[in-house]
Amino acid sequence: MLDMENNTNEKVSCLIIGSGPAGYTAAIYASRANLHPVLYQGIQPGGQLTITTEVENYPGYPEGIQGPEMMVHFENQAKRMGADIRYGLATAVDFSVRPLKVQIDEEKWIEADSVIISTGASAKWLGLPSEERLNGYGVSACAVCDGFFFKGKEVAIVGAGDTAAEEALYLSKLCTTVHMIVRKGQMRASKVMQDRVLNTANIQVYWNADTDEIIGDKKVEAVRIKNNQSGELTTIPVSAFFVAIGHQPNSGIFKDFIDMDETGYINTIPGTSKTNVEGVFAAGDVQDKTYRQAVTAAGSGCMAALDAERYLGEKGLH
């Protein structure tokens, strides 16, 4: 039984958890529908875009925009519409009761007639200090987002699954050579994706290889790899290093109530943002393992707010 001794009994109509493009867009639409949404920003206000540099593929910014600046625009628009934006992290939920209950910062419980989960996903990293230091300066976890900046250059990508294969193929259309680093002697990717990679002339695969170091002072200049059988070190000059070893959806606190796939992505009813719990909706990367783009996250945030509005109306709660 969850401890609700410190429950302040604050009651809201629509509670939004998370503040990336999905959360802020949901807040904009929910505000315009007079749902008076309360949004808690979570551990990373603004989401993954706050750790990127230039964003060139979001509509409406013909000159491109810095990721953190774009998320300030999102936040300011949500505030202008009347959304109540707060610092704080959702730390527990109880979706077995009505109203729904969400705990903030392990202290305060909030009751909500509807909840929109937009907690996003976090890229998995190798854990190298140089990877963290050069993140945004040639190190990226999204080839589709950042590959264009390295057109006509040599790049490296680490990973062995379908996503890594897809991103390597995407990069091969832009870059002169794609150096693909695979930890084992085979890929996890599907046979068709492996065949495409191996049949692409400008993708060079390094088998049984680990990333030893990403080299560069203020930007990526090379990657040093280590053959995990012979121990041999090889330095490859590259302008970018892409990490494609997977993402982890930030969904752990919901696992006792919300249906998810085996990797933790929230299952939604196709064509909607509805989860298996009535009144709980999911938007953005926490339920999208396929596209993971700011524009698709924003679109699903819109869907979630509209679904919440309809739900509240049908229940006579709005």
Features:
318 residues; alpha/beta; FAD/NAD(P)-binding domain; 5-stranded parallel beta sheet; 19 strands
Description:
- This protein has 318 residues and is α/β, with parallel strands linked by helices.
- The protein has two domains: 10-122 and 247-314, FAD/NAD(P)-binding domain; 125-243, FAD/NAD(P)-binding domain, CATH 3.50.50.60.
- Helix content is 24%, strand content 27%.
- It has helices at residues 21-32, 67-80, 129-133, 143-146, 162-172, 191-198, 294-314; strands at residues 10-17, 38-40, 54-55, 65-66, 84-86, 90-94, 100-104, 108-117, 121-123, 139-140, 154-158, 177-181, 203-206, 209-215, 222-227, 233-237, 240-243, 247-249, 280-282.
- The strands form five sheets. Strands 1, 2, 5, 6, 7, 8 and 19 form a seven-stranded mixed sheet that branches. It has a five-stranded parallel sheet with strand order 10-17-11-12-13, with helices on one face. The protein has a three-stranded antiparallel sheet with strand order 14-15-16, with no helix packed on it.
- A hairpin with a 3-residue loop joins strand 7 (100-104) and strand 8.
- Helix 5 (162-172) packs parallel to helix 6 (191-198).
- The longest helix is centred in the last third of the chain and has 21 residues, at 294-314.
- The chain is elongated and about 65 Å long.
- The two termini are 30 Å apart.
